[in-house]
Design goal:
The chain has 223 residues and is mainly alpha-helical. The protein folds into 2 domains: 51 residues, no CATH class; 158 residues, Orthogonal Bundle (Tetracycline Repressor, domain 2), CATH 1.10.357. Helix 4 runs parallel beside helix 7 and helix 7 crosses helix 8. The longest helix is centred in the first third of the chain and has 21 residues.
């Protein structure tokens, strides 16, 4: 059971949930982080010590919000009794579709955070928990796919598939952020088409045939 305290100034219950809700509201209303934890707490009627009982900083708070997006999505998937019988491709498709639905409920916050991300080649602090949780999940799913043969084992390549899927997720996230279609239908189409393409590349098939042919040509060029 979550321990809560009450602010003497406004009688507000200071918990991680309502501190997070107040921060979201402040960020969306002002378009930027509060000037300091002290000012934020004073304006919201929290004691500063109450904030630090839950979060070390605004960055830690944002990191927790983003990590929760992945954790919530994973929990929803596991709650589906049929999830365990899904193929690797189906699990990844389901994750992306559910994540998009989860983000939709907090779209304004997500967009303002993504707008502040001006170095696409680097993982911003607010996405680090999100990435860690995603990496844990995608690696477990990819390992299942390798075990069943749905994903091809390729020396020097298959241990980097998680990196490719992280970049793929970033593509989906940016596509969703700029999607102007009704109910984000274009994002759904982008998810399906890009996941299918990814599995054409990491599954057994076209790429393996190309590699085998390349090996054949190389061997014959030396004979």
């Amino acid at each position: 059971m979550e321990k809560t305290t009450k602010s003497k100034s406004k009688g507000t219950t200071a918990s991680a949930d309502n501190i997070t809700a107040a921060y979201r509201d402040c960020l969306l209303s002002e378009g930027k982080q509060p000037a300091s934890v002290f000012k934020f707490c004073k304006d919201q009627g929290f004691k500063e010590s109450e904030f630090y009982q839950c979060f070390a900083s605004f960055e830690a708070l944002e990191k927790a919000i983003w990590k929760n997006f992945v954790e919530t999505t994973r929990a929803k998937m596991l709650a589906d009794a049929s999830y365990s019988s899904f193929t690797t491709r189906e699990k990844i498709l389901t994750f992306y579709f559910m994540l998009a639905e989860t983000l939709k409920t907090d779209r304004s916050f997500v967009l303002i955070q993504l707008k502040s991300w001006n170095k696409p080649g680097m993982v911003p602090p607010f996405l680090k928990g999100f990435k860690s949780s995603f990496d844990d999940w995608i690696n477990s799913v990819l390992n299942e796919g390798k075990a069943t043969g749905e994903i091809a084992k390729r020396p020097f390549l298959d241990d980097r598939y998680d990196v490719l899927f992280w970049l793929h997720l970033m593509f989906i996230l940016q596509f969703w952020a700029h999607d102007q279609s009704s109910n984000f239908e274009q994002t759904d189409a982008a998810i399906e088409k890009s996941v299918n393409l990814a599995f054409d590349l990491i599954g057994k098939g076209v790429l393996d045939n190309a590699l085998d042919f390349g090996k054949f040509l190389y061997q014959n060029s030396k004979s």
